[in-house]
Specification:
Length: 205
């Protein structure tokens, strides 16, 4: 892969990371309710999930997944239900005026990682993106370990940058709402956003 191709690949992944969808909406909701630090576990989980899909697509296993419509349908519906559940929890979340006190709002760090992983993994559009995207940059039939390592490294950097940008934006919006009433409204807005992400995922079958 040439330098120009590597840069283009990273930029494309970055744009893909910040493109509106269930994952971005879920991340915005978490950032609005818990701040930037609360977003980091979800960012890591979403990145890991995308990298898994990238590796599957690199080995050609994603083509087979296109014929597993029923399986991915179940995964998609389960992911949508999970997002509805998280949105409901945000609606009922107590007011917390600092990031540290709200850290238990949805769960621990590992729960946040798992949430991010499941939200991204439950969207079959992600793996379909990599199916169409990868062959434009590399010959998958001649894929070497070093080439795959480079793709993974570039994807991780681009995904972390893009998702962190979303998290930072949501966190800054959160700081504008410091009163209990504003925080309550923000939690409900974030919950609605999370529920909207679930509806988006459910409708994208």
């Amino acid at each position: 892969m040439s330098f120009e191709s590597a840069v283009t690949f990273a930029l494309a992944i970055f744009v893909f990371a910040i493109t509106p969808g269930p994952g971005v909406f879920a991340l915005l909701a978490r950032g609005m309710s818990q701040g930037f630090r609360g977003c980091l576990p979800m960012v890591v989980g979403m990145t890991v999930s995308d990298v898994v899909y990238l590796i599957l697509a690199s080995f050609g296993l994603a083509a087979l997944a296109q014929h597993w419509g029923e399986v991915f349908g179940v995964i998609r519906v389960a992911g949508a239900i999970y997002l509805f559940y998280l949105g409901w929890k945000l609606w009922r979340a107590p007011v917390a005026l600092d990031d540290a006190s709200s850290s238990s709002e949805i769960g621990s760090v590992w729960q946040g990682v798992l949430q991010g992983f499941l939200i991204s993994a439950s969207n079959p559009k992600v793996i379909l993106f990599y199916i169409a995207f990868l062959p434009t940059f590399i010959d998958l039939g001649q894929l070497s370990a070093s080439s795959l390592s480079l793709l993974v490294a570039l994807a991780v950097i681009a995904l972390l940058a893009g998702l962190s940008l979303i998290a930072t934006s949501a966190s800054r919006a959160r700081r504008l709402f410091r009163s209990p009433g504003a925080q309550r409204g923000l939690n409900r807005g974030a919950g609605s956003l999370m529920i909207g992400a679930g509806a988006w995922l459910a409708a994208k079958g």
